[in-house]
Amino acid sequence: MDLTFTPEEQAFRAEVQRFLANEVPARLTGKVRAGQHLTKADVEEWHALLNARGWLANHWPTEYGGPGWNAVQKFIFEHDCALAYAPRTLPFGLNMLGPVLIKYGNEAQKRYWLPRILSGADWWCQGYSEPGAGSDLASVKTTAVRQGDHYVVNGQKTWTTLGQHANMMFALVRTDREAKAQEGISFLLVDMNAPGVEVRPIITLDGEHEVNEVFLTDVKVPVENLVGAENKGWTCAKYLLTYERTNIAGVGFSVEIDLENMKTTNLRVIAAVAGGGVPGAESSMLKIRGTEIRQELNSLIRRAMGPYALPFVDEALDEGYEGEPVGPAEARFAAVQYFNNRKLSIFGGSNEIQKNIISKMILGL
Ligand SMILES: Cc1cc2nc3c(=O)[nH]c(=O)nc-3n(C[C@H](O)[C@H](O)[C@H](O)COP(=O)(O)OP(=O)(O)OC[C@H]3O[C@@H](n4cnc5c(N)ncnc54)[C@H](O)[C@@H]3O)c2cc1C
Hints:
By secondary structure, the chain is α+β, with helices and mostly antiparallel strands. Helices cover 44% and strands 15% of the residues. α5 (91-104) packs antiparallel against α6 (107-119) and α9 crosses α10. The longest helix is centred in the last third of the chain and has 24 residues, at 282-305.
């Protein structure tokens, strides 16, 4: 990619590149390069390295621990991380809950939860989807009934990514069953270790345990864990999804084909956010194109590997795998990656749903 930067931007880029070359353990970049599974400890190590540098929450305002980067600096950072095979950060706390707390949380919530996202004290998961509420998210049925100083939560969440590692979940719950669908929803922070929370694994097409079902039975959640006003959680929910979709596009982590146009849209979105705006319906455009490109790349790699991509050896992506090599290193993850990334056009709101949003919000249809 041909990039032209000002002298200040070049100096910043050199600093980022020095950090990536000298401070990121080769073990981590080696795993990313080989497409191996990152463990919980790997993710925590990467977050801690970035946090020590003040670069972890690079899109947060400085008063909450962000580095004060402009849109170009964020772009440079993401771009060079991808080139250096640095891991991706985990989005649930940083990219999803963080912006919601900063915009809708009260002071006590910001003071308590934001530093814990930075320090890694909490591992967050997302409790939006339910068996009957995916694309039609506003039909969530999990209920939260207020009893004195806490809510009692009952229901089931599903597809909860990495919920098996999480100690906290931000969840959409129904607090008013009489109101119109979107108006009776609240945004709650649920302790995954509270009595009544049960996490059951879902094994996906690629043999992985990445997602879960979460059953909630009479779970007590303190009222101070309500973010925003009761029954106004839909506003938080939508705001969070725009960040989620922009992140799923993974622009810096793909390659050049079709990306020049994507790059411009991505810069428009981050510039709008830097200027105090929020990523609006453009996040849906980014999500569709970004995920299509990533899936096309997976398909291209799989085809280029030919017969080498046929063996489906999921364990080959675990650290320390000593089985028979099945062809060039890249072939090891061609098949697994191909299956795993089928998810990209589904989660964060399926691409069909993004098209509905674009037709309404941008085309006015
Ligand atoms: C790997 C993975 C990880 C996930 N992680 C999480 C997570 O951590 N937390 C969380 O809360 N959720 C998560 N999800 C859930 C994800 O957001 C939903 O799967 C997604 O929103 C689709 O909902 P659904 O699965 O209920 O499908 P449905 O809503 O049942 O959709 C089925 C099909 O119908 C299409 N469709 C539905 N409605 C329309 C419409 N109005 N117009 C056009 N087409 C339509 C969809 O595009 C889709 O192709 C994850 C999903 C996956 C696959």
